[in-house]
Amino acid sequence: MEKWSYTKFGGGSGGGCGGHTYQLSCWIMVTGDICDGVANGNNRWHKTRSSKPVFDENGVRNGWKKILVLYKAPKKVGGKPERENWAMHQYHLGVKEDETNGEFLVCKVFYQSPSKKNGKS
Protein backbone atom coordinates (compact mmCIF):
# COMPACT_ATOMS: atom_id res chain seq x y z
CA MET A 1 0.00 0.00 0.00
CA GLU A 2 1.35 3.45 -0.81
CA LYS A 3 0.67 6.75 0.87
CA TRP A 4 -1.59 8.96 -1.22
CA SER A 5 -1.75 12.62 -1.99
CA TYR A 6 -5.02 14.53 -1.77
CA THR A 7 -4.60 15.53 -5.42
CA LYS A 8 -5.32 11.93 -6.50
CA PHE A 9 -8.96 12.43 -5.49
CA GLY A 10 -10.86 14.48 -8.03
CA GLY A 11 -7.71 15.90 -9.59
CA GLY A 12 -8.34 19.21 -7.86
CA SER A 13 -11.15 20.02 -10.28
CA GLY A 14 -13.76 20.63 -7.59
CA GLY A 15 -17.48 20.15 -7.96
CA GLY A 16 -17.93 17.54 -5.23
CA CYS A 17 -15.25 15.12 -6.46
CA GLY A 18 -14.08 12.56 -3.97
CA GLY A 19 -12.82 9.07 -3.32
CA HIS A 20 -12.33 6.39 -0.71
CA THR A 21 -9.17 4.83 0.67
CA TYR A 22 -8.04 2.70 3.55
CA GLN A 23 -4.78 2.92 5.43
CA LEU A 24 -2.96 1.90 8.58
CA SER A 25 -3.14 4.40 11.42
CA CYS A 26 0.66 4.47 11.71
CA TRP A 27 0.57 6.64 8.55
CA ILE A 28 -1.28 9.29 10.51
CA MET A 29 0.70 10.48 13.50
CA VAL A 30 -1.75 12.14 15.86
CA THR A 31 -0.41 15.07 17.88
CA GLY A 32 -3.19 16.82 19.76
CA ASP A 33 -5.72 17.89 17.14
CA ILE A 34 -3.28 17.76 14.22
CA CYS A 35 -2.89 14.69 12.02
CA ASP A 36 0.42 14.82 10.16
CA GLY A 37 1.85 13.05 7.21
CA VAL A 38 -0.75 11.85 4.70
CA ALA A 39 -0.61 14.86 2.41
CA ASN A 40 2.54 16.05 0.67
CA GLY A 41 5.05 18.53 2.09
CA ASN A 42 3.99 20.14 5.35
CA ASN A 43 0.28 20.14 4.54
CA ARG A 44 -1.80 18.87 7.44
CA TRP A 45 -5.17 17.28 8.14
CA HIS A 46 -6.75 19.11 11.09
CA LYS A 47 -9.45 17.51 13.24
CA THR A 48 -12.42 19.90 13.27
CA ARG A 49 -14.29 18.73 16.39
CA SER A 50 -14.67 15.83 18.81
CA SER A 51 -14.93 12.33 17.38
CA LYS A 52 -18.50 11.07 17.01
CA PRO A 53 -19.55 7.51 17.93
CA VAL A 54 -20.89 5.25 15.16
CA PHE A 55 -23.79 2.95 16.12
CA ASP A 56 -25.29 -0.13 14.47
CA GLU A 57 -29.04 -0.63 13.89
CA ASN A 58 -29.42 -1.96 17.48
CA GLY A 59 -27.85 1.11 19.07
CA VAL A 60 -24.54 -0.63 19.88
CA ARG A 61 -21.47 1.57 19.42
CA ASN A 62 -19.15 -0.07 16.86
CA GLY A 63 -16.58 2.64 16.23
CA TRP A 64 -15.79 6.30 15.73
CA LYS A 65 -15.85 8.99 13.03
CA LYS A 66 -13.49 11.97 12.81
CA ILE A 67 -13.93 14.91 10.45
CA LEU A 68 -10.76 16.58 9.23
CA VAL A 69 -9.95 19.43 6.82
CA LEU A 70 -6.75 19.98 4.87
CA TYR A 71 -4.51 22.96 5.64
CA LYS A 72 -1.85 23.98 3.12
CA ALA A 73 1.63 24.74 4.43
CA PRO A 74 2.39 28.46 4.78
CA LYS A 75 4.36 30.01 1.92
CA LYS A 76 6.56 32.01 4.31
CA VAL A 77 8.37 30.79 7.41
CA GLY A 78 6.17 31.61 10.39
CA GLY A 79 3.16 32.22 8.13
CA LYS A 80 -0.36 31.01 8.79
CA PRO A 81 -1.51 27.72 7.16
CA GLU A 82 -4.26 28.19 4.55
CA ARG A 83 -7.44 26.11 4.75
CA GLU A 84 -8.18 24.13 1.60
CA ASN A 85 -11.61 22.91 0.45
CA TRP A 86 -10.70 19.23 0.94
CA ALA A 87 -12.33 17.26 3.76
CA MET A 88 -11.80 13.75 5.10
CA HIS A 89 -14.17 11.55 7.10
CA GLN A 90 -12.08 8.96 8.96
CA TYR A 91 -13.68 5.86 10.52
CA HIS A 92 -12.28 3.14 12.78
CA LEU A 93 -13.78 0.25 14.73
CA GLY A 94 -13.47 -0.20 18.49
CA VAL A 95 -14.61 1.16 21.81
CA LYS A 96 -11.72 3.64 22.21
CA GLU A 97 -12.21 7.09 20.71
CA ASP A 98 -8.65 7.27 19.38
CA GLU A 99 -7.30 4.71 16.94
CA THR A 100 -4.27 2.63 17.86
CA ASN A 101 -1.03 2.33 15.90
CA GLY A 102 -1.39 -0.34 13.20
CA GLU A 103 -5.21 -0.28 13.21
CA PHE A 104 -6.92 -0.04 9.81
CA LEU A 105 -8.87 3.12 9.06
CA VAL A 106 -11.43 3.83 6.35
CA CYS A 107 -11.35 7.34 4.92
CA LYS A 108 -13.60 9.25 2.56
CA VAL A 109 -11.82 12.21 0.98
CA PHE A 110 -13.78 14.80 -0.98
CA TYR A 111 -13.69 18.33 -2.32
CA GLN A 112 -16.22 20.76 -0.86
CA SER A 113 -17.33 23.49 -3.24
CA PRO A 114 -16.60 26.86 -1.62
CA SER A 115 -19.69 28.54 -0.22
CA LYS A 116 -20.59 32.01 -1.41
CA LYS A 117 -21.26 32.92 2.22
CA ASN A 118 -17.59 33.12 3.19
CA GLY A 119 -16.68 35.18 0.12
CA LYS A 120 -14.86 32.41 -1.76
CA SER A 121 -15.90 31.30 -5.21
Automatic annotation (TrEMBL):
Domain NAC: 1-112
UniProt keywords, alphabetically: DNA-binding, Nucleus, Transcription, Transcription regulation
A GO CC term attached to the entry: nucleus
Residues forming coiled coils: none
Any Pfam family matching the protein: NAM
GO MF term set: DNA-binding transcription factor activity; transcription cis-regulatory region binding
Superkingdom of this protein's organism: Eukaryota
Name by which UniProt lists this protein: NAC domain-containing protein
Originating species: Miscanthus lutarioriparius
Taxonomic path: Eukaryota, Viridiplantae, Streptophyta, Embryophyta, Tracheophyta
